[in-house]
Design goal:
Structural class: alpha/beta
Strand content: 15-25%
Radius of gyration: 15 Å
Helix content: 25-40%
Shape: globular
């Protein structure tokens, strides 16, 4: 069984919705188990279990996973501070090399179509590269990349939430999230079978 960790931070629920769709895509692959985790707000106690929503991620979740999907809303073209703060605590995992050769993907949401989605995705890729992970994007065989007038990039799925964060996810954005989860799980399973 390949365990795929979907780790995200979400302020208004759009990135959380994407995480759930990516998990559904992971579930389409036989032998793949999606595990959804989030991170606390800055200054919150990470040892307190959230009253609602997903459980906070631990370093053991990272060590145990066979693949990682990392998601954040766009903050001025960059990942959100709570997600960065968590990733910044993973130096011991980097030293151990326990993330090396695991596949990873990234996903994001922004208020506007040109709100820094691609730079946010790229900013999330940088620590994954330092951890030695294998980055997985979306190929243009996913027709939604050519047809979208909302979210969706070859770097990973994106979503346009609207200036008031009240826009519903589109059919194309949904399909790209599902495809990303399925692709990540398939690649994780392939790498695991080579390692065995």
């Amino acid at each position: 069984m390949s365990e795929i960790l979907i780790l995200y931070y979400s302020r208004h629920g759009h990135v959380a919705q994407m995480a759930s769709l990516i998990a559904k895509g992971v579930s389409r692959v036989s032998g793949a188990l999606p595990v959804i985790r989030t991170v606390p707000e800055l200054g919150a106690d990470p040892d307190i279990i959230p009253e609602e929503g997903h459980t906070y991620c631990t370093k053991d979740d990272l060590r145990r996973c066979d693949g990682l999907a990392l998601g954040s809303p766009t903050r001025f073209g960059n990942r959100a501070a709570p997600l960065k703060a968590f990733i910044d605590t993973t130096s011991d995992i980097w030293v151990s090399g326990s993330m090396i050769d695991k596949p990873a993907c990234v996903f994001s949401a922004s208020s506007s179509l040109h709100g820094g989605q691609e730079t946010t995705l790229l900013s999330m890729m940088l620590p994954l590269l330092h951890h030695g992970m294998v980055l997985v994007g979306l190929p243009y065989s996913e027709n939604g990349l050519l047809d979208t007038d909302s979210g969706g990039t070859p770097y990973g799925p994106t979503l346009v939430a609207g200036p008031n964060n009240d826009r519903d996810i589109t059919e194309i954005e949904t399909k790209l999230c599902l495809a990303m989860g399925q692709r990540l799980a398939s690649i994780a399973g392939g790498i695991a079978s080579i390692s065995d």
